[in-house]
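Sorry, can you check?
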Amino acid sequence: MLSRSLPVVQSSRLAWSSFSKCRLSNQASVTRITLARVCHSRTFTSSRSWLKDYPAHQVITMPALSPTMTQGSIGPWKKSVGDEVAPGDVLVEIETDKAMMDFENQDEGFLAKILLKEGEKDIQVGTPIAVLAEEDGDVKAFEDFEASAESSGSSGNNAPAEEAPKKEEKSSAPAEKAPSQTKSTTSSSDRTFASPAARKEAEARNVDVSSVKATGKTEFTNEPRVVLSDVKSHRPAAAKAPAAQASAAPAAGSAGTYEDIELSNMRKTIAQRLTESKNTAPHYNVAMSINMTEVIRLRKELNDYAAKSSQSNYKLTMNDFVIKASALALRDVPEVNASWINDNGNGKAVIRQYKNVDVSVAVATPTGLLTPIITNADQRGLAGISSTMKELGLRARENKLKVHEIQGGTFAVSNLGMFGVDDFTAIINPPQSSILAVGASTEVLRLKDSKIVAEQQMKVTICCDHRVFDGAIAARWLGRFRTYMENPKLMLL
């Protein structure tokens, strides 16, 4: 009876593999990526998990919600077990390497089981996260459903794995030989096979899964495989815990206490990308002071006009002028509107100069720094830039930006002037080759026509990648930027 059931289990698992893999719809990634339209097969299938039949269902897996996403974290579930799910309904919020995004299901059914709860972190793309049943009455059948039963080929090996610890209690001699056998097997392969449940438990216990003695077997290759019971019965983990705690404790004599803050996916991405930028891009900085007298006067005139006009509802900020002047300067000095490309597809490193001018603007959010993009900024008016920036900034703070709104850009602007910062330098956001750091506008005294006069000045610093262009070009770009800022009516032409 047992041997007859195995082909059924194998075939059902292969069937599960075909419908549980998710792919992003290319069209959806461009139009509505924030409501990630993930494609699932519309064919429900039944399966058998170690002699237990499950009704027709789909296993929903962690989707790739951005081109660079390899893992994600589970946010709040928008549906509960037993809820009916229609195409287009948001199942759960997923924290990607970019932002918190909605995961929109594309099939109808009933949520039968949530496999990963809110707060689960660093879940690999393709890992099962939920089960969708075809009929409402089938939901209760999935109360004991486990992801490892179908996702990792463990259905036929769970029972022997659970019995292994009992055999060790009866006889200590075989147990002494087991470690040597495991070592010889693992030495022949760089990979340690383990069920998702075992890996999750090992991570929670701070145990290296490769150090755990495997009692299970992979179904098709019959190689050693670590299962949940192996991790739970792994004794060395308890011995290592005090040492780990001791290393994390403050040094003797140090004062005060501290708190370790867990990294979000976004913070990990920021750390990785900016560290890479500083290590690979030879940064240099060029600074210049801008006379803000005229732009302050023009901004006041335009905002006063908008306040009195019933047809104009804009309110310009100084950052709107900075974005517009940057875009026009990029059009005048296209060498700055470029990126260093290590491989252009032909195995050659090139400097890629862009025809479009897309300005990324740094926005501080509670979860980290985001850079929404003002596309074709050189072709937009000041009012258009202002309204678009306000909308993008609001959605950035709410984690509602779409991937294409924060990925790309040919130039970046970071403005800390509103925080009272006089001047600073920034880190280039790869693959861009430059970023403009904008300080506050302050009143200074200077000599003009043999007289001491007071004027508003703003200091800006362009931080550049020396691989892409040299200091003379950076100075030429700053000169054009200053021309537009000190003669702001040129931006209206």
Q: What stands out?
A: The chain has a mean pLDDT of 78.
